[in-house]
Design a protein that fits this description.
- The structure is a single chain.
- The protein contains 17 helices and twelve strands.
- It has 332 residues and is an alpha/beta fold.
- It is globular, with a radius of gyration of 21 Å.
Length: 332
């Protein structure tokens, strides 16, 4: 392409971005704290897709608690793609006939383009001396988390606390359930989603500790300043994944399969991975993970597959009606 054509293409692309006109409109339905990730990612994809195909794609976003989001899709919200923070939310759409059963094989890394971990956010100076999960469950500590039945963030917290207790000397499912019960008694309320939990902790000033994704900790630093809180890495934390999938019935109905597939595939591109790292998510690209090593300290992690036999089994045992959460919450 000549320099003139390159400039003309760039001008055309800029003009198209500034108008409401688009060849195709995609809806990405996502979890609560992914707003900034996709706000930055969407323009990268739009530019790439326009350069590649000449098509202008408008990308709409929908964010909220992950379980509420997939239920909205099941109830008719016409999302082309779902970008979630737990596999069982996508499996819910599989059961509804909206997502392919082999969705996890359609993209690399089990269809999870990046990872994160669960960390503690504490007040400046860490006045309650919170270092590990036992401290979060101690009397007199106020905990802020999203609702474990409705959000991936809340479920990850619940499962990580359970796994930590399970791996203590003499640990068992009974001792883990007792421990998580103590921890939940320290939660005066459950936030609607991860970002709502952050607002409750940082803006409303409630709670001694917020448990959230490592990536959200850095977003808090950008918005509120690093001097207002501290990040504590517990002795054991979950490696969280963020699975993505096509909503098959929607993309076939709208004729957007090609564009929606391209949208998800581009998450694994250098630009997509760089965007993940810049939004403090651990990229799958080993070169970029090394480049951003200072942002991602080494930490002892487990996967939901290793401890619980997979996200679907974990959900059935703990978060379905009558599961361990309901048993604990009644007692709480």
């Amino acid at each position: 392409m000549t320099p003139f054509l390159k400039r003309a293409t760039a001008v055309c692309f800029s003009l198209f971005l500034g108008t409401a006109w688009a060849d195709v409109t995609l809806l990405n339905t996502s979890y609560d704290v992914a707003r900034d990730v996709y706000k930055d990612y969407n323009p990268l994809f739009q530019k790439y897709w326009f350069t590649k195909t000449g098509e202008q794609v408008d990308v709409k976003q929908s964010h909220g608690g992950s379980t509420k989001q997939v239920r909205a899709v099941a109830d008719g919200l016409e999302a082309d793609v779902v970008t979630m923070n737990q596999a069982n939310d996508i499996e819910f759409l599989v059961d509804k006939g909206l997502v392919a059963r082999d969705w996890a094989k359609k993209f690399p890394n089990n269809a999870s383009p990046y990872t994160s971990t669960m960390v503690f956010i504490v007040r400046k100076g860490n006045p309650k001396a919170i270092k590990d999960w036992s401290d979060v469950a101690a009397p007199g500590v106020q905990l802020i988390i999203p609702h474990p039945k409705n959000t991936g963030n809340g479920r990850n917290t619940y499962l990580t606390a359970w796994a930590w207790s399970l791996k203590q000397p003499g640990g068992s499912n009974k001792s883990a359930q007792d421990f998580v019960g103590k921890l939940l008694k320290n939660a005066p309320l459950f936030a609607a989603g991860g970002r709502d939990a952050t607002t409750t902790f940082m803006q409303r000033g409630l709670g001694d500790v917020l448990i959230t994704f490592e990536s959200e900790a850095e977003m808090i630093a950008k918005e509120f300043g690093k001097g207002n809180f501290e990040v504590v890495y517990p002795s054991l934390t979950m490696q969280t994944e963020f699975p993505v999938a096509l909503v098959e019935k929607v993309v076939d109905k709208k004729g957007t399969r090609k564009q929606a597939t391209g949208y998800l595939e581009y998450l694994w591109s250098k630009e997509g991975q760089e965007n993940a790292a810049q939004n403090y998510l651990r990229p799958r690209d080993p070169e970029l993970l090394k480049k951003y090593a200072s942002s991602f300290p080494p930490v002892k992690t487990f996967t939901v597959d290793e401890v619980f036999g997979g996200a679907t089994k974990a959900f059935s045992a703990h978060f379905k009606d009558g599961g361990s959460f309901d048993q604990i919450y009644v007692a709480k």
